[in-house]
Amino acid sequence: MSGAPSERTTVRRKAERAHYDRQTVYQILDSGLICHIGFVVDGRPAMIPTTYGRHADRLYVHGSAANGTLETLASGTEACVTVSLIDGLVLGRSPMRHSMNYRSVVIFGRFERLDAREAKLRAIRAILGNVVPGRLATLREPTDSEMARTSFMSLSLAECSAKVRAGGPKADPDDDLGVWAGVIPVRQVAGTPTPADQAAAGLDLPDHISGLLG
Ligand SMILES: Cc1cc2nc3c(=O)[nH]c(=O)nc-3n(C[C@H](O)[C@H](O)[C@H](O)COP(=O)(O)OP(=O)(O)OC[C@H]3O[C@@H](n4cnc5c(N)ncnc54)[C@H](O)[C@@H]3O)c2cc1C
Questions:
Q1: Looking at the predicted structure, is the pLDDT value of residue 2 above 80?
Q2: Cys-Cys crosslink for 5: which of 9, 154, 159, 165, Cβ 3.0 to 4.6 Å?
């Protein structure tokens, strides 16, 4: 990521909301849980949601070796990946003055298949580390068979943009100031964990899980 946008990652609409610096892009990607991967297959558009993780300047995704999306991406087709976080519902005093506070990233590029075991482990560290930080250290290593049954792909962040909206609704001269307007904050919250059926008795909740709650 150079910090300078390419022709297609230059935000034109509301350009003042654009960010192209690493820190903003990293912060948004590291706060999200799913991305949407857009691509064209057999001449038709497709858009698939999936889990991801980031390490340095690369995004990682994985799935079954039979995963059709990953197979298409492995052929070198171009992809467009988005991550969107909703920070608030913006309620104006007229229908057109309603909006959302958001942080989002758009990435263009071609995914690369990861074959080496170390590269696959890096992907696992990035993905699991994004979803439940600290969990990987408590788990056994994946077996060779598990690795063989899973496809891992990575995408450079070289061509990407971020866009951030923050703040309240705009007011218009015709607005009725007696109508409530403002922002309702929205955030993603982890609920109370349910232990698995076959859990050993008396297991305490690990710190990396209790740290996610609330
Ligand atoms: C949760 C959410 C809700 C939204 N709701 C609306 C809505 O209701 N109506 C609406 O018009 N817009 C909405 N937006 C903004 C929307 O994503 C577009 O930015 C906007 O519609 C302008 O589109 P455009 O094609 O004119 O963008 P352009 O500025 O022409 O896009 C050019 C390039 O800028 C970059 N870019 C554009 N948008 C984004 C983005 N959101 N994040 C990162 N990079 C971007 C991409 O690289 C893109 O190729 C919403 C965004 C989010 C995240």
A1: no
A2: 9
